Amino acid sequence: MNTIPLEVMVRCVGWALVHFIWQGLAIIALLAICLRLLRSGSANKRYFSGCVALLMMAVGPIITFNYLAAQHQPGPTVHFTSTTAVDTVTIPASPRISPSAVVHIAQTPAPVPSLNQRLEQILSWFVALWAIGVLGLSMKVFLGWLGVSRLRHSGTQRLEEPWISQLAGLKQRLQISRPVRLLKSALVEVPTVIGWMHPVILLPASCLTGLTPMQIEAIL
């Protein structure tokens, strides 16, 4: 497997991001058309269309990068061995160039760089800004995950009856089979649900007193 040089990798990433501008616009246009056609359909179909559009946006740059990287892969090296004798070649003397011709050549204007050449000059900065943005957003998500983990494990206590029995009855009525923890939290100010695979319901201590069973059910 050939290793892609760093310069080539940066160029491929940059062009993949540039191409994603029109690719993203095309995906958004297709999604808008689908949502318009499905405006009288079910919400699940519109939700599925949105998920497919997000998946296409995630896969599109990867496919573009792989295609561009394949274009820069070096081909097989072919060695030629020649046993034919080389004849002596006489190279004629080059004609003298007149001073007027030299002046004419020197005054020829330089070609104007094309749009692709201009983009090539700023691709490295474009990729660097993109990497900084990805790092910043990833750090924000990581800090949010740390905050949620702190809510789950810090300042919590297990609740007793009638909250547990009320939660068990609601799970049975809603046909929820996965375990759901119910905890009293000293860090939240309103009833909060965190987690998806292992959900936890956090209730502030202020809402645990003086409630009727109907009010407890409504909160849960």
Describe the fold and architecture.
The structure is a single chain. This protein is of the alpha+beta class and 220 residues long. It is 58% helix and 7% strand. The chain is built from six helices and four strands, in the order ααααβαβββα. It has a four-stranded mixed beta sheet with strand order 1-2-4-3. The longest helix has 39 residues, at 115-153. It is elongated.
Category by helix and strand content: alpha+beta
Distance between the first and last residues' Cα: 56 Å
The major beta sheet can be summarized as: 4 strands, mixed
Tell me how many strands there are: 4
Percentage of residues assigned to helices? 55-70%
Order of helices and strands: HHHHEHEEEH
Q: In one word, what is the shape?
A: elongated
Task: Tell me the number of helical segments per DSSP (H or I, 4 or more residues long).
Answer: 6
Strand line-up across the major sheet: 1-2-4-3
Percent of residues in beta strands = 5-15%
Average residue pLDDT? 81
Furnish the topology, listing elements before pairings.
Blueprint lengths: L5 H32 L5 H29 L27 H8 L8 H39 L2 E3 L4 H12 L6 E5 L6 E3 L5 E5 L8 H7 L1
Helix pairs in contact: 1-2, 1-4
Summarize this structure as a short list of keywords or feature phrases:
6 helices, alpha+beta
Provide a concise account of the structure shown:
The protein is an alpha+beta fold and 220 residues long.
